[in-house]
Write a structure and sequence with these properties.
Layout lengths: L2 H6 L4 H10 L16 H4 L6 H26 L4 H26 L1 H11 L8 H11 L1 H4 L6 H11 L5 H4 L2 E2 L5 E2 L3 E7 L5 E7 L3 H10 L1 H11 L5 H14 L3 H14 L6 E2 L12 E5 L6 H4 L4 H22 L1 E3 L7 E3 L5 E3 L5 E3 L2 H15 L3 H11 L10 H16 L4 E2 L2 H12 L6 H4 L9 H17 L2 E2 L1 H9 L7 H12 L14
Parallel strand pairs: 5-9
Antiparallel strand pairs: 1-3, 2-3, 3-4, 4-6, 7-10, 8-9, 11-12
Helix pairs in contact: 2-4, 4-5, 4-11, 5-6, 5-7, 6-7, 11-13, 12-13, 16-22, 16-23, 17-18, 18-19, 19-20, 20-22
Length: 511
């Protein structure tokens, strides 16, 4: 069914039968809930909590009903025609989800970005690629707001100065759009090319509405895992997410990472132009490079190198800087022509104490050594287990190997979609064999973003099909082992030149 047929009403007879079977009326193009208008046309972000919740629910419900209607009518179709109609329905559903989530921005759009690089187990395997391909547009081709809308934000932040005078030149068309703001290319009066991230007008209200629903989500999680401290988790989620609205806070984070990785051999964090950055405007050096979709098509060896770089940045920052970036979605990486990787977007970072790092190292050390009792003690010290006597230590070790086995096993391992789905299954699916044990555990608020970073990174590596001995790299940070890769040797030379100690925590057991 073409878009032209839908708009003119010239629709095939069996499509009408699908609607009748689904019980869903044809969308009214003038309805605010069913509108297919893009943000460019609408120019506004839905802000109210009830309206935003209803919009997502209505979209998902309508698409689900239409899918059911298609399956019902397919009983009377030939197998070939039935398959064709099913493929069309899935494509339409994915496109509609992208349209709605892209218009809503905020946390709702972030969910779509996340779904774009984690294989959804609930979808039939033959249609997962369709959804991922469409949802990936939320990373690199999300709908931008029109210039006249975001220009108002610039004028307000620059005390009513015309942005055309603040910059020597600024492009009116955004080259990137994300969940909270969009990015325009500009040139400073000294000729420096910069990226100007402008927060969407109204997105603060939208994001606060989304966060008002976090309490409901955490209450649901508490019903599944009674040990979860719902209040602490809700506060941590809200605090970290709302920090993203303050670009001055993000600028502070980015400056810290840029200083720490200045002149690094394979990592680049773009410089922040502090004098031009404001609460809703962030100006940084413009960086050119290949995006994630292009990187996925590179030869295996190049994808392995890219995977090792983002692994070293994501985990290594914890040990080298006591500060890490929790937002691992693929839109935050660019592969530069010289082989370095540029890391973007520092709106959601987390600082950790030396004591917390040592407790984390003790957990990983016990798992590396297959020491169930040591793992139980270390996880108790970290706050995951309140009553150690209620936990079977050997099953706890088995569970840990399912979650982090990809870097606990001393072997070259390719991260696969199956590994990601197994990790999701054993941590969240009530049908998994460890669910009874999980109900006796908790998730300390301080660990929330670390777990998010780890699972998100694993999903990105799976999309790359990246292969490495992740265990040997990890041992550099846990024990201070000598690096076994070219990148590792270059990185340790860099940090030693900066005076960073080789062993950040515990002593090697010598195995």
């Amino acid at each position: 069914m073409s878009r032209g047929e839908e708009k003119t009403g010239n629709r095939p007879e069996d499509d009408s039968a699908e609607e009748a079977a689904s019980g869903v009326a044809r969308p009214d193009p003038d309805s605010p809930l069913e509108s297919d208008r893009s943000p460019d046309e609408a120019g506004e972000i839905p802000a109210g909590r009830i309206g935003r919740t209803a919009k997502v629910s209505a979209t998902v419900g309508a698409q689900g009903a239409r899918y059911a209607g298609t399956k019902a009518v397919n009983l009377a179709r030939s197998p070939e025609k039935a398959q064709e109609k099913l493929e069309t329905r899935h494509l339409e559903a994915a496109m509609k989800m992208v349209s709605v989530l892209g218009e809503m921005k905020g946390a709702a759009m972030k969910m779509g970005q996340l779904a774009s690089f984690i294989d959804a187990d609930f979808l039939p395997p033959e249609f997962r690629e369709t959804y991922q391909e469409q949802l990936s547009k939320l990373r690199s081709k999300a709908p931008a707001m029109p210039w006249d809308k975001v220009k108002v934000v610039l004028e307000e932040e620059y005390d009513d100065q015309d942005p055309e005078k603040v910059f020597e030149h600024i492009e009116h068309e955004a080259f990137a759009a994300a969940s909270i703001g969009q990015v325009h290319r500009a040139r400073l009066h000294d000729g420096t090319e910069v990226a100007v991230k402008i927060q969407y007008p109204g997105v603060a209200d939208a994001l606060e509405s989304d966060m008002a629903n976090a309490g409901m989500l955490v209450r649901l999680a508490k019903a599944i895992a009674p040990g979860l401290d719902a209040k602490e988790i809700a506060e941590e989620l809200k605090e970290r997410t709302l920090e993203e609205l303050d670009y001055e806070f993000e600028a502070q984070n980015q400056r810290a990472f840029a200083r720490a990785y200045e002149d690094h051999p394979f990592i680049l964090v773009p410089k922040v132009h502090t004098s031009l950055s404001r609460r809703r405007v962030l100006v940084t050096d413009f960086v050119e490079g290949h995006g994630f979709d292009t990187i996925k098509e590179l030869p295996q060896e190049e994808r392995n190198i890219f995977g090792e770089i983002i692994f070293r940045f994501s985990f290594g920052s914890i040990y080298h800087l006591q500060h890490f970036n929790a937002d691992t979605h693929p839109g935050n990486y660019l592969l530069m022509p010289d082989g370095r990787v540029a890391f973007l977007d520092f709106g959601m970072t987390k600082k950790v104490t030396a004591g917390q790092i040592q407790m984390e190292q003790a957990v990983v050390d016990a798992a590396f050594r297959d020491d169930p009792d040591g793992l139980l003690t270390a996880l108790s010290d970290l706050g995951f287990i309140k009553n150690p006597g209620d936990i079977d230590a050997r099953r706890l070790l088995e569970h840990a190997k399912h979650v982090g086995g990809w870097y606990m096993e001393d072997a070259e391992i390719e991260i696969s979609a199956e590994r990601v789905m197994k990790m999701i299954e054993v941590t969240s699916d009530p049908r998994n064999e460890y669910f009874g044990m999980l109900r006796k555990e908790t998730l300390p608020a301080d660990e929330l973003l670390g777990r998010r970073m780890e699972s998100g990174l694993m999903a990105v590596l799976a999309q790359l099909g990246a292969k490495a001995n992740w265990h040997r790299i990890s041992r550099e940070w846990i024990y201070g082992d000598e690096p076994t890769t070219v990148l590792g040797r270059a990185e340790w030379d860099y940090f030693e030149d900066k005076g960073v100690q080789r062993v950040p925590g515990i002593a090697s057991p010598g195995n």
